[in-house]
């Protein structure tokens, strides 16, 4: 059964992870993918998130998609029990995954029951498409992107960072434009979307 933990801010919602995972995470290995952050100023948050995983008892293995070979990425994803994709620019993230042909690899690993943890961009990636997020993320950071199809692991469209002052009115602008077009699911930094099988629920 596929399981996804979709966070807006993992640092602010990780406390729900252990119960959702349903097993002891200590000693398990997580593939840590920071690719979306490379074109954003979010490195301090990444360092805190890396340390948080270690504090939770997990072994962290870094995988930077845009510089790794497809073969190396497949090898790392195959040997670890969890997958974490950080926040940042969703378009840049999707472009990197497309260039390395890793979207079907991620889908296959999720289908095996590996726990997928998304944060912001990593959560948006789970949607059927990412093109609704252009007011928050700059599409020009991904000039070689070929379409906007996401993983399609959830039927709704996660909209993170509701109430986060950094994004100002952008969240509401996205809601106003898309709420009658697609099934948006806005959520705050303190909440998470839990996906088990074909069902999802909001917690927090």
Protein traits:
alpha/beta; seven-stranded mixed sheet; two-stranded parallel ribbon; 8 helices; 31% helix
Walk me through what this model shows.
This protein is an alpha/beta fold and 204 residues long. The protein has eight helices and nine strands. The chain has helices spanning 10-13, 17-21, 43-55, 70-79, 90-99, 103-111, 121-124, 170-178, and strands spanning 3-7, 29-33, 59-62, 82-85, 115-119, 157-162, 184-188, 192-196, 199-203. The chain is globular and about 45 Å long. Strands 3-2-4-5-1-8-9 form a seven-stranded mixed β-sheet, with helices on both faces. The model has no long low-confidence stretch (mean pLDDT 95). The relative contact order is 0.20.
Briefly summarize what is shown.
With 204 residues, this protein is of the alpha/beta class. The protein has eight helices and nine strands.
**What's the overall average pLDDT, rounded?**
95
Question: Could you say which structural class the secondary elements and strand pairing correspond to?
Answer: alpha/beta
Shape: globular
How far apart are the first and last residues' alpha carbons, in Å?
23 Å
The counted number of beta strands is: 9
The radius of gyration over CA amounts to: 15 Å
Order of helices and strands: EHHEHEHEHHEHEHEEE
**Strand composition percent:** 15-25%
> How do the strands line up in the largest sheet?
3-2-4-5-1-8-9
Biggest β-sheet description: 7 strands, mixed
Query: Any low-confidence stretches, pLDDT <50, length ≥5?
Result: none
Number of helices: 8
Helix content: 25-40%
């Amino acid at each position: 059964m596929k399981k996804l933990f979709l966070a807006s801010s993992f640092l602010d919602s990780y406390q729900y992870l252990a119960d959702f995972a349903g097993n002891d995470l200590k000693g398990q290995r997580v593939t840590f993918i920071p690719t979306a952050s490379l074109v954003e100023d979010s490195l301090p948050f990444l360092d805190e998130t890396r340390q948080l995983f270690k504090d939770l008892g997990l072994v962290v293995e870094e995988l930077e998609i845009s510089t790794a070979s497809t073969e190396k990425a497949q090898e790392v994803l195959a040997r670890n029990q969890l997958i974490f994709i950080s926040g940042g620019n969703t378009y840049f993230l999707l472009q990197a995954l497309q260039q390395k042909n890793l979207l079907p690899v991620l889908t296959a690993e999720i289908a095996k029951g590996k726990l997928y943890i998304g944060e912001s961009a990593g959560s948006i990636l789970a949607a059927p498409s990412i093109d609704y997020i252009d007011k928050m993320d700059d599409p020009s950071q991904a000039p070689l992107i070929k379409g906007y199809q996401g993983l399609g692991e959830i039927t709704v469209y996660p909209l993170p960072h509701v109430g986060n002052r950094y994004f100002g009115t952008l969240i509401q602008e996205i809601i106003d434009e898309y709420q009658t077009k697609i099934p948006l699911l806005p959520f705050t930094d303190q909440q998470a979307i839990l996906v088990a099988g074909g069902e999802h629920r909001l917690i927090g």
